[in-house]
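Much of the work behind modern protein science is quiet bookkeeping, done one molecule at a time. The fold becomes a row of whole numbers, each drawn from a learned catalogue of backbone shapes. The protein below has been through that process, and both of its lines are reproduced in full.
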Amino acid sequence: MRVGVAGGLAVERTLAVMCGAGVLPALVAERARAERWRVVAFTFDGATDLSARVARTIPSRLREFGPILTALKDEGVSAAVLVGRFSMTDVLHTGTSTADETALSLQGRAGSRIDSRLVDAIIALFAGVGVEVLDQRRFLGDLVPEAGCWSRRAPTADEWTEIRRGLTLAREIADASIGQTIVLRYGAVVAVEAVEGTTEAVRRGTALAGPGAVIVKATARAHDYRFDTPTIGPETVSAAVAGGAAVLAVEAGRVAILDRQAAARVADTAGLSLLSVSDAG
């Protein structure tokens, strides 16, 4: 408890930021602090050092959920945000012989390590200790643009045909919990994202397609933003440029673009069309 400005008692809210790799955990921590949250960072493999931005940092492992639940209770956490890149390869490689009892129970309840039931199981696990998992867009909503072209070059008519096809296909693979990104060339699908992530799928797809590939990233229709905000940024754009892609399109209002101005500058160096697209095109 702490003393409020009027002399009364005010409850201090504590937010747990479950930190994967990338820049998003630091951004969420800073924005949460601006909203007067006390922030505790649970840092997983690949997470950056947030010690200067948070009240406490707790190194954590995917295979050890028991200590995480204990820390949530000890720190008085009332809400959590899961943010950053969590390697699905690491999830798949976590053996049952090294997982603790809570992690094994979580896997048993989910029945899968990669589909939506895992999300539901994690949310239920946190709810059991009084912690609500928040929608990431509470802190990141301004990074998710509506339809628009962010590069100097707009798509050609032929590229728009591939973008529309790619948007439909990307939604379908997302609905099936396969991935979110499709790479096309001349109407043919040359790569489908799986557990490797968007940037690696772009590298693989453009290597197979050759110059002129069209890349489209979209979300499942029932995508749960408590677990993930689909994102691209300058790194993904750089991979598309390096592979000679012609277009990188993401679903408007559903996919975030980190550092949009920097991403557009990278796109413009190679004439890549970078845009957010809706059904209307």
